[in-house]
Amino acid sequence: MAESYRRGHPGHALFILPYLTAFVVLLAFPLFWSIWLSLHKVDLFGPGRFVGLTNYTRVLADPVFLQAFRNTILFVALSVPTLVALGLFLALALNRTTRTTSFFRGLFFSSSVLSVTIVTLIWRFVFIPRDGLIPVIFEQLGLQPINFLSTSGWSLFAVGVATVWWCLGLPMMLFLAALQQIPADLYEAAALDNASPWRVLRRITLPSIARTIMLVTIIQIVMQFQLFGQAQLMTNGGPNGTSRPLVMYIYETGFIRWDVGKGAAASELLFLIILCAAMVQYIISTRKPEVRE
Amino acid sequence: MSRDQSTYRPETLTASRPLLWIAALLSVVMMAPVAWLVGLSIKNNRELMLGTESVFRLPYTLVNYVNILHSSQAFGWFFNSMIVAIGQTIGVLVLSSLAGYAFARLEFPLRRTIFVIVLFGLAVPEQAVIIARHQMFNWFGLHNSHLGLMLPGMSSAFGVFLMTQFFRAIPKEIDEAALLDNASQWRIFWKIMLPLTLPAQATLGIFTFLHAWNDYWWPLISATKKEMYTLTIGIASSQTNFAQSEGLGFLSAQAVFASLPVLIVYIFFQRHIVTAVSGGAVK
């Protein structure tokens, strides 16, 4: 009797009803509504007429969008490898449970809980000309000061430094979790063979966490593609848009210039990119772990 | 569990002395900007105007922190942040627990299909919906309200996903015994299952709180009136014209003040946060 009760009872759906309402109203509907908006000429004064893919072609022909796209790719290409390499290094260095290592783990993760506003404030106070920490140090050393936040090339770099500082905790923690999963007998075999530490790292440790390295890389690509607050608050996209990322372009198009249709089109393009990455992430995470080969 | 294993480990590259020293060095680099911020916050603004290298010299003062106490604005923002973060956390916990329980342990028509659709929601980034959301909230006059600030976060599929995992882990025998006693599904959920998920509730709750507290884009476009700013947006707004107005010292103190709640939460609940963050990202 209990079994039949458990199996199939439409009334049980009441449990998911509250969330499902939130899901439909606040996520599913806005998603379709955004797509609808992206196919229409819309402005502040309300929904207009159907224009097909015009908004998309307008976005793709917009030099500002193309620049933002290039900036974002450059940013991802620089920040993600840095995050993965540093995260992996810290995980390897702190892969042992002692007081010291857990203190350092806590410390390296602590910046992740701060808001983007605080992170950018901290780093602006490091980079600002004359008063910042770096200019002060440069002056002490007698070096020529660089205006990091308003020199093209350097501004995106400064945003990247703040981002790596902010986001480093997650890759480190994910790598640590993966390192703990490596079966100890693999290391015992290596010890019998008198393998050098370097060889153990290359032959055992890294292959065992290859899947996690892939996953962390994709997670970071997805996250860094959504760069917004750091760039907006530190450089406001400048100078000349050289540090304006895609999300900031969407923000400016949709909420500053109120070109809603065009902004929606740009946001759907970004969604498409992120969706592809998320699918790769899903495929990798459902594949069997290759630890026990 | 791996604690015992690690004692058997040979001297691999991992956690060796030199690596630890490099990590220690990196931690100094990591903390230098924070130390700089704290240093600025305990200096007199007038002294900082003459040159910020005075941070390395006495005297220090708490005057900037005292000024925060006198600034009703920062406290108003703090209050807004609290209401929004706590409200959103409660909402997420209620919705996710109910839904997670049903997805994990009950049968109803279309259960699997709905679950897959909800999981798809995990892949939808905020940017893809934010313009439409902004319009919708405009229709209902929800902008510049606490409710309007806390609602969007409640649609996050992450909590449902996490709670489904936790409810799945509870042995089946527990509720089967209760069913034989003719307890209703609601009673089983409320009296038996929910207490068992308290650790999970803590994990999800802390995670949601931090997320709501740190949220940037939605409050930026939804709370346009100064008195409705959250602390995150308030600090951002005083940051954009910081050169002229309040001075580096005051802004630094404000930043320290704004990060204290999350840092306190972090120090006390570090384990939960790490579980939530890493569990959610991999599984």
Question: Any overview of this molecule?
Answer:
The complex is a heterodimer of chains A (293) and B (283). Chain A has 293 residues and is mainly α. Chain A has a domain at 56-116 and 152-286: MetI-like (MetI-like fold). Helices cover 70% and strands 0% of the residues of chain A. Chain A is built from 15 helices and no strands. Chain A has helices at residues 2-6, 17-38, 54-61, 63-93, 99-110, 116-127, 133-140, 154-167, 169-180, 184-192, 197-208, 210-225, 229-234, 246-256, 260-286. In chain A, helix 12 (210-225) packs antiparallel against helix 15 (260-286) and helix 14 (246-256) packs antiparallel against helix 15 (260-286). Chain A is globular, with a radius of gyration of 24 Å. The two termini of chain A are 45 Å apart. With 283 residues, chain B is mainly alpha-helical. Chain B folds into two domains: 2-64, no CATH class; 71-282, Orthogonal Bundle (MetI-like fold). Chain B contains 15 helices and no strands. Chain B has helices at residues 2-7, 17-41, 45-50, 63-70, 72-105, 111-120, 127-139, 146-150, 157-168, 172-180, 185-196, 198-214, 217-222, 231-240, 248-282. Chains A and B meet through helix 1, helix 2, helix 4, helix 5 and helix 6 of A and helix 1, helix 2, helix 5, helix 6 and helix 7 of B.
Task: List descriptors.
heterodimer, A: 293 residues, mainly alpha, MetI-like fold, 15 helices, globular, disordered N terminus, B: 283 residues, 2 domains, 73% helix, transmembrane helix (chain B), transmembrane (chain B), MetI-like_sf (chain B)
Structure, briefly:
Chain A has 15 helices and no strands. Chain A is mainly alpha-helical and 293 residues long. Chain B: It comes from Paramesorhizobium deserti.
